[in-house]
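Q: I have 566 residues here and want to know how they pack in 3D. Can you give me a structure?
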Amino acid sequence: MNHGRLPIFAAVALVGLCGCRSAPVGGSSWAYRISAAQYVDKMKAGWIGQMAGVGWGAPTEFRYQGIIMPLDKMPKWEPQLVNQFRQDDIYVEMTFLRTLELHGLDVSIRQAGIDFANSGYPLWHANRAGRDNLRAGIAPPDSGHPKYNKHADDIDYQIEADYAGLIAPGMPNVVIQLGETFGRLMNYGDGLYGGQFVGGMYAAAFLESDRVKIVEAGLRCIPRKSQYHECISDVLRWYQQYPFEWTRTWQLVNEKYHLNPQYRRFSCSGADSDYNIDAKINGAYLVMGLLYGGGDPNETIIIATRCGQDSDCNPSSAAGILFTTIGFEKLPDTFKTALDPTGKFSHTPYDFPTLISVSEKLAREAIVNCGGKIVADEQGEEYFVIPRRRPHPTPLEQCWDPKPASESRYAAEEMAKITAQSGKDLSKAVEKFAPGWKIDRCGEAENPGLRQEVRGRKSVLVTHPLGENVGCVLRRSVSLPVNRKSTLKLVVGHDARGDWDLIVKANGEPLLRKTIGPETTSLGWTEVNVDLSRFAGQTVKLELVNEPTGWHYETGYWAEISILSE
């Protein structure tokens, strides 16, 4: 295993924008120069690295939490494992590529959110919460803000940020800005920085083969005072101290960033859980694979996998970055000969050749947009001349002490563009239980639907909030009689393990908010009556909300929904 540093700027020259070292480029005297063919070769290898890393590590994902995976548990590599066309760690980021392809590099964050909201694949953690928020009308950046997203420090954008560096060779500020557009759909603070860090490493990997310098380049893309920066800086320091003892560094990372609750202050699983999907520690494992792998593709993936936790995503990014430095033509055959060029990535319009073509197209646009040039020599070979810029990281934010949310919401015309179904379709169950009522934003947890009996009550409708900040809504417009008293009567219950808030609105006005739980019910049920008399003679829009209270068994039980007039 070679732990030494590889040659710097292999096959890449650093020249002035006009071929002269003294030629200024937008405030800088330097520019990078790389042939278009070299760029495509490296970008292509970056995508292969992601596919190989996630394919090899997938069987081990989260099976080793807070412990090192034994070497004999490492799966065997098979060349066909590179064909990861149905792997969410790959195809989610292609949603962002598609948005850029259709709307350009200057696409608004609101449009990016609409496109992500319309994605049809299953999601988890920050991605799931962010998309639920978007579908409920909570516009970005609030969809990823800690007030609305309890997973904002999770690994999600870090998993998906590879695309940003692969279309931004030598352009760290493009990576940072793409994080501001797409990373904030689901993440905040360290969760956002993880993606900008990974994208920054990819951007550097086109122009640099020294792995330490690549990591340092990624660090320059995030705030120095963030815990994420501190974590990766620690890994670099421990690597220098123990260059041949990756398990020693793993122990130090585990003690500080897994066992110490001060570094898990916004952990979605709780600071004491063995399960750790925080971006920081998984970023550390990614970097450990990259550094201790010594430039060897197999060792890089094996070490990143054996570190545990999210052990398919981490080797995916580590291999993607390393493979970018190597280039497709120089990759070992075992990682490319079985590639199926006709396989289509799930939920996308892309096969592998199309993915490469779109990535190149966007890279060319980014170079020109950043003041660079695409030139040709006398033989007609194209070169990318890329301005060298100092990275300008996002200002420091922390999920456990966030800045105020912007309270951004989608307008009605924007919501009309979000056509993906939000939640489980219970329309038939609701029509049978309470004719005339409609339902949306019902989550799939706890198997919602119409049940024959619950705690002695027959024909009970069971609902669940869509997300941690998105309640399930039953709604109906009803014409109330003139000069008569009308009452909304509800008989509602709760899961024995939790509670929920019942919210009643009329024409958008809150009329009642009541916690439905052990302290407010008898044998799990309570009757709630809401006076509607002041709406007599009107057609009123009623909303009944199964509102979450902390994301713990917030199932709503409905034994009766009726309107009584006397």
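Q: Anything worth noting?
A: The CA atoms of residues 34 and 78 lie 33 Å apart. Confidence is low (pLDDT under 50) at residues 1-29.
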